[in-house]
Amino acid sequence: MTPPPDAGATTRSGSHLGRPPLVLVVPGAVAAALLVVPLVTLVLDTPWGDFLDQLGSAPVLAALRITALTSAVTVLACLVLGTPLAWLLARVDFAGRSVLRAAVAVPLVLPPVVAGVALVTALGRNGVVGSLLRETTGLTVPFTTTAVVIAHTFVAMPFYVLSVEGALRTAGERYDVVAATLGATRWHAFRRVTLPLAMPGVVAGAVLAWARSLGEFGATITFAGNFPGTTQTMPSLIYTQLQADPAVARTLSMILLLVSVGVLAGLRNRWLTTS
């Protein structure tokens, strides 16, 4: 008796499903072109002959330094602050948890400029917290490198928190319960059991937060400004150089594109697999 064909293989190949309808193929091809063509043209239009010279110019090096510093500190802030928040959302049942989870996700869909305005209302010189800080300590946050880190953390934190919370929920609480029955405190169980199980989500969330920090522009320029050597990151320099020197803008854009491709390659098991 001949065994039936593999249904999964038949579905993947589509050999028995007929020709794909044009009503799906045409818009799908247009969508693919919309996503691929701009990237290809950026690669082709980048002045590769002057790439290293432009990469070594003073403005670019300064922007790279600020971007590297602020993105690294942003990831650290997400690790230190976001991990406990993700644990609370995943493991602790408290009043308002659903509201807090929704609030954490808001920056994902909030226009970046609106995020910058929100930071100004909170931490600006005349903001609710900023004015109190200025009156008590004489310190102001806006238009400083610290403001860049805060803006980046504000927009990047949700990516990290939701990733880690998802990993914690996937792991479940059964191992925490076993650790508790063996006499482990909740803090000990978190360090030795919960966090190691959620480590893939922690790593993925950290990479996502870092990538989001590298590309942040709207909230940064609104809250921190665009001062070379202090708050000017690579996206801000691209915006400035696009009209002054488009070749430099394309070079910086190519750098960010390469970083983005690297992030995607690093997370290929998360996004580039079908099973």
Please, could you describe this protein's structure?
- The chain has 275 residues and is mainly α.
- The chain has 15 helices and no strands.
- The protein has helices at 7-13, 22-45, 51-55, 58-91, 97-109, 112-123, 128-137, 145-171, 174-181, 186-197, 199-215, 218-223, 234-244, 246-266, 268-271.
- Helix 8 runs antiparallel to helix 11 (199-215).
- The longest helix is centred in the N-terminal third of the chain and has 34 residues, at 58-91.
- The protein is globular.
Structure summary:
With 275 residues, the protein is an all-alpha fold. Helices cover 77% and strands 0% of the residues. The protein is built from 15 helices and no strands.
Q: Uncertain regions: pLDDT < 50 for 5+ in a row?
A: none
Oligomeric state of this protein: single chain
Structural class: mainly alpha
Distance between the termini: 31 Å
Evaluate the radius of gyration.
23 Å
Inertia-based shape = globular
Residue-averaged pLDDT, rounded? 87
Q: H/E order of the elements?
A: HHHHHHHHHHHHHHH
**Tally of contiguous helical segments:** 15
Helical content (DSSP H or I, runs of 4+): over 70%
* Extended strand count: 0
Strand content: under 5%
Largest sheet: none
List keywords for this structure.
275 residues, 15 helices
Helix and strand topology:
Blueprint (H helix, E strand, L loop, with lengths): L6 H7 L8 H24 L5 H5 L2 H34 L5 H13 L2 H12 L4 H10 L7 H27 L2 H8 L4 H12 L1 H17 L2 H6 L10 H11 L1 H21 L1 H4 L4
